[in-house]
Amino acid sequence: MAINYFLLVSRQGKLRLAKWFVTLSSKSKAKIVQEVSQLALNRRPRMCNFLEYKDRQIVYRRYASLLFICEIHEKDNELIALELMHRYVEVLDQYFGNVCEMDLIFNFQKAYAILDELIIGGEIQESSIATVLRTTQASDIWEENDDLKAAIQDAALA
Amino acid sequence: MVYHNLKALIKGIRSCKTVADERALIQQESAAIRASFREEDSFQRHNNIAKLLYIHMLGSPAHFGQIECLKLVASPRFSDKRLGYLGIMLLLDENQEVLTLVTNSLKNDMNHSNMYAVGLALCTFANIASEEMSRDLANEIEKLLGSSNTYIRKKAALCALRVVKKVPDIADHFTAKAKNLLTDRNHGVLLTAITLVTEMCQIDTPILDEFRTAVPLLVRNLKSLVTTGYSPEHDVSGITDPFLQVKILRLLRMLGKGDEQASETMNDILAQVATNTDSSKNVGNSILYETVLTVLEIEADTGLRVMAINILGKFLSNKDKNIRYVALNTLNKVVSMDTNAVQRHRNIILDCLRDGDISIRRRALELSYALINEQNVRILIRELLAFLEVADDEFKLGLTTQICLAAERFAPNKRWHIDTVLRVLKLAGNFVREEILSAFIRLVAHTPELQAYTASKLYLALKADISQESLTLAATWILGEYSEIIVQGGVVDDDQTVMISDKDLIDLVLSILDSPYANYLIRQFVLAAVTKIAARTTTSVPEQDRIAEILAKYTTSPELELQQRAVEFASLFTLGETRIGVLEQMPPPELKATVMGVVSENKPVGSTKGKEADLLGDEVLSTPAVGSAPQPAASAQSNQDLLAEIFGSSTSSPPPAQQQRSTVDDIMGLFGTTSAPGIQTPHPNAIPSSYPSTPASSFPTTAAAARAMSPPQPATATAPPQQRLTAYPAYEKNDLKITLTPQTSAAKPGVVMILARFQVSGGEAATGLSFQAAVPKSQQLQMLPMSNPNINPGAVETQQMRVVAPVGSNVRLRLRIAYSIAGQNFQEQVDFSGFPPGLTGTAS
């Protein structure tokens, strides 16, 4: 299982998240985002979740107004890729509590942070939703503590 | 205005009404961020980077933030680090110089007291490390593989994966640690460890051999996943950690491949997974799918293999399209190993050709090509032909090629082979490779028994449809080559032999010239074909004259190749007996030893032309010296011809050396002294002589050809009058003449192809011609560009139009024509409704 890139695209074709696990120029990245999301957006419901883009295997799945897209290696298991995608959606859902597109727009760093706890270098690193949630939230607390410390410092100075 | 934080900026951008507004706002904000960076405002840095990353996602440049991200990472605050590493992963990659500056920060943070800071550094490393960075930090990573913290261990394993990928020669560095990780109880660590080991085994065979000892361990791990009850942490729809199961199965596949003992060890567990996994949901099928792949690649026992293929068979009939897709995809990989097993599912595979989803159709098509063999070629080709009728255009070229190649390889007999290619030409004549076409012509030339049959079929097919390029080309060539067979033997239509006259045949072939589909190549084929037809004894003198006229018309064609052919063919007409010799039937081209329809150097059409050019060359050279010795290289027969010709043309009296039956007729005909126009009665000997090299036993067996052996019947025009393509004048003023030739196809009622021709009748060229047309609202019009907006005297320019009209309606056009002749500008508008009614078919 190796993912080359992971994209989140809105129904209007706007990019909401892009994680690249292969090294590409920004020009070819933009081209892939444009062409692959068009291909996937043009698919009708009830078609299979796989398509081919320049002999590459694309797995996509639609959740409400968002399209989750990833390119996987030729020999990879397409079905488990779908499960992995769903795993990410489940974590997002639990983290934000009924996640919607707005959550991901205004908190895109969090969306990246959660993905980083689930997939690294294109490979899955954790299969437990609870662990992904726990570590992301723990990092959040550290972040808030920083702000707290800064506030205390500011107060002390004042 | 400058937005004070990310949220405000996002709101600002989202409230933009137009794209231009949005772009202006982003530009302004970018400039502000840049300015702030220059002021080294460390309080604003976090905010600025957050805004910049958002702008970056919208597609705007953000490289100027790279260094600022490095500064954030060096900050002691965790929130700064978190954002800084995110920025580095988004804005940098392994090819950028700046990355070397990150190495130190990564090293520091890998030893940070906060495990989440270590996690950030590891995650960044695993995502973007370069080769150099991998070498620099390999020791750190190795150390962290032994960390007591699972959060760090699992991330370090994927960092090791990055190192192994970037610097394969230090892979053995990690073997010992990786082995330890395989015994880890944490699922996250196991997952990543197995990923690492799989990669290491892939790049290095000694490592692969070393890890074979881990097979029993992996089997135990898999077994406990399959047998343990519900474990909430890793459950997916009732299955325990499918992600880990798939990873283990994949590593087992590598370890079992080519190793009997390892395969033996995993046999039982594979059977257990294959039988016990719930196949009602996607997740279960993902495991079954991985199991099948493993079973098929390792040295599994036969029972297990059968089980695997059966699982794929079940997949094929699954309602879920994803599962069907995966099955087709996998069978494609299996088909070379075990064709018979796949053959059993042939019908389902063929059904998938009709699936509504193009991804599935594509997979099914690839698989069906692989399934064709001697036994099933008839059935499968029939299915593929049925599919060709409805296939997407993007599939057609591949389909026609594959069908014809398979027909060539597995054809049970030649008749079937010819029928198959004929069907391909009819169904998708515009999607046929040149090699396939020439292979077909070669096949016909080598099958004298079926030439009458093939010619008859092509005659009917061409009459029904001239819009299929390759069909037109094949038919033109074959009708030109074997015209006497078809004129003598008639055409077999629905088991009835219908006699056709030479005129019918020539009408049909010439009608191609007026069709809007006629391209440059087709016109060349037609000229060669009619020239050959004119030389046959079955062609009457008036028809020969008509062909001569057509050729004369093309001697001024602005298209070089056409002009050259026309000039050469026309002068061949003055050569009498030579012409007959030159235009005799082609000897069958050499068959290439290779099985497939590879391009042969002896392309039939090409060699015809070469031969003519040679003889004409001789003629031109010898013209001044009347009666000079003929070229010694020429054969005896052509020497006589040449002599006859030379005497004939120089003395304009019957040649003294007349020896052959038809010479008199031909030459008399050419000089117009014969008073026997009309249909010539062919000499009975003419027929056998058209099969020069065939033994008597293999003479025509089909009904039509058998009749050709009997005394010829007078060729009366019993065929229905053929719908000739007629040019209707649309405009004729100021020396400019425009005609329109409509053409319809019975298969597509309501679609009318129209060819507009432009000619000038005076001595002045018309320049800058613009020809516009409009149709009533109920109709649709498409126009292709004109061949040339400047019309020189003697030239004919063309433009194609396509009108789609309701069935039964009349095609009406409003034409606007603008041009200038001799410096005078004209602009006119005319209405045209001169086409006969019923062009769009009859309303039913």
UniProtKB/TrEMBL annotation, chain A:
InterPro entries: AP1_sigma, AP_complex_ssu, AP_mu_sigma_su, Longin-like_dom_sf. It is found in: Cytoplasmic vesicle, Clathrin-coated vesicle membrane; Golgi apparatus. CDD domains: AP1_sigma. GO terms for cellular component: AP-1 adaptor complex; cytosol. SUPFAM superfamilies: SNARE-like. Its main location: membrane. Keywords: Cytoplasmic vesicle, Golgi apparatus, Membrane, Protein transport, Transport. Residues 3-138 form the AP complex mu/sigma subunit domain. GO terms for molecular function: clathrin adaptor activity. The keyword Metal-binding does not apply. GO terms for biological process: cytosolic transport; intracellular protein transport. Belongs to the adaptor complexes small subunit family. This is AP complex subunit sigma. It comes from Hebeloma cylindrosporum.
TrEMBL record, chain B:
Pfam families: Adaptin_N, Alpha_adaptinC2. GO terms for biological process: cytosolic transport; intracellular protein transport; vesicle-mediated transport. It is found in: Cytoplasmic vesicle membrane; Golgi apparatus. Gene3D superfamilies: 2.60.40.1230, Leucine-rich Repeat Variant. Keywords: Cytoplasmic vesicle, Golgi apparatus, Membrane, Protein transport, Transport. Its main location: membrane. Residues 723-836 form the GAE domain. It comes from the Eukaryota. GO terms for cellular component: AP-1 adaptor complex; cytosol. InterPro entries: Adaptor_Complx_Large_Subunit (IPR050840), AP1_complex_gsu (IPR017107), ARM-like (IPR011989), ARM-type_fold (IPR016024), Clathrin/coatomer_adapt-like_N (IPR002553), Clathrin_a/b/g-adaptin_app_Ig (IPR008152), Clathrin_app_Ig-like_sf (IPR013041), GAE_dom (IPR008153). Adaptor protein complex 1 (AP-1) is a heterotetramer composed of two large adaptins (gamma-type subunit APL4 and beta-type subunit APL2), a medium adaptin (mu-type subunit APM1) and a small adaptin (sigma-type subunit APS1). AP-1 interacts with clathrin. Belongs to the adaptor complexes large subunit family. This is AP-1 complex subunit gamma. It comes from Hebeloma cylindrosporum.
